[in-house]
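Assemble and predict.
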Amino acid sequence: MKIIIDAMGGDNAPEEIVKGAVQAHRTLGYEIILVGREADVRRCLTAEGTESLPGIEIHNAGDVIDMNDDPTLAIRRKKDSSMVVALNLLKDGGGDAVVSAGSTGALLTGATLIVRRIKGVRRAALAPALPNLGAGALLIDCGANAECTPEQLLQFAYMGDLYARRMLKIERPRVALLNNGTEEHKGASLQQEAYQLLKQADLQFVGNVEASTVLFGDVDVIVTDGFSGNILLKSIEGTAKFLLKNIKTVLTTGLKNKIAALMVKNDIGALKKMMDPNEIGGTALLGISKPVIKAHGSSEASAIVNAVRQAAEFAESGFIQTITENIDHMRVDGAEE
Amino acid sequence: MKIIIDAMGGDNAPEEIVKGAVQAHRTLGYEIILVGREADVRRCLTAEGTESLPGIEIHNAGDVIDMNDDPTLAIRRKKDSSMVVALNLLKDGGGDAVVSAGSTGALLTGATLIVRRIKGVRRAALAPALPNLGAGALLIDCGANAECTPEQLLQFAYMGDLYARRMLKIERPRVALLNNGTEEHKGASLQQEAYQLLKQADLQFVGNVEASTVLFGDVDVIVTDGFSGNILLKSIEGTAKFLLKNIKTVLTTGLKNKIAALMVKNDIGALKKMMDPNEIGGTALLGISKPVIKAHGSSEASAIVNAVRQAAEFAESGFIQTITENIDHMRVDGAEE
């Protein structure tokens, strides 16, 4: 297994990315290709004491795509950027998967334009797992596609179902449509039409799910357009951060509370970890013809290790092959492109 | 000030509604009209020891709209329901405001069809205040309109701005558009077009806001369509509930944690209260030509007291008159209805 890592993508690049890559190599044993400015990457490797480790290779790329770049323009023009070079390596068979903590929009555009979608898949989607005290609830799409068609939501449902089976090891995923109420007629026309498609699909469709209950373990796959998915994901992140910040204030105010804080510190820490996007690791770009994993922009080394593990598992899962073989069942006659 | 209360609406009707009405009358001094099945209402009043309290009047209505009713059909057909009777009373000048904890969809439909919108307002909106450690951040719309036009979002922004000034006492509200990123080009076409209208509006428009930061006090009015607003509001509710449930588990596991729990109990209780929809009280239906306040479906007596207080303040705020006088500035030439 050979994992291609965009060494220059993310808030903590290249230091934490390279550190994570070295840790992943040491603990998981995979071969790693680090793509980025050679001098920078080599400096980081030296800092990790591994300048010439066999199994870690540097592939030079002189440019970097940053968060201010327009995704489409950046992919088209920055041919020598670490992200574009990494994706071309994947396309040409130079490795089994790409991991990047760089711009989500650019990675999605790059994966679509360079690696390409699975034939018949209308849109690639981002599908992170939300914490739910169980195996997690897969949210698809969470931001790749602001505007979606009912057919695209149907495809997201099938991809989410398969991903939950293969990667989250859920035997018979309960697939739900994110909506503003549980009744069948709820939502805008997108949700109303998608509901009818999902009802007839070969899935365990359990109907609409409201945003208030997604974390409570009643559903395994949450299907939605990328705009609403982004709102859901980010408000969970923000609310958790807001509450934990307030709890921290409570636990550091006054001697009595400080003593109490010492007593529950480890347990509150575990909760914080559960809600931390860094711990979730990576998010697969579902629908792309080869494995591309988006790591969180704020990834530190541990998140990169998780993303590398996830990339390898995804490559071995047979997900892409199964979708490719079954795409005809995921189409709606006469649907717009 | 005379407040009309739908005694039969909500999960805890009529007991908690009547109890709240009595408390509101006693503590705030307003006259109250309780609309509902006379025998039921009278039984509840007796339980409160106030069968013949001057200032509390019963107006009989034999029918009830429940959560399973289709909103439009229910308003059209259940002419003798407590909600329809209450709204007709308001329309005919029998009171100054309506408070209902019944079906949101039915109340909105009823307010629109019976009381009617302010002339020129395209859609009425629900605008609850989110907790943000300050005066609160007004979310408009949060579920009334699943599909919106850019002009409607512009009107929501103006109404939200005025409501924040008059009701939340924020001198110069910072108005933001909910989006999946902070950059100007973000979102679907709705957000992109609304952004351009908001940029030119006579408002302190501070650009896009992401769902992850809405609680942190940087914005005062969050403008969005009702579908996304519903996702945002409910995921904040759900995440807070999920986390507080987990914290409770932490604090009741093991002797050490139980002792710690006793020490921080009051402070954690205050946090829980801050995130509790019951404490927020009511949400005004902005854009309706007379004051209609939606109380949370799970309202207990204390939430009804808050909603009654809010109804009276809203009636006295001059909000409706100001919107009526300035509606010409809130229109977009050639916009679809």
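The longest strand of chain A covers residues 31-36.
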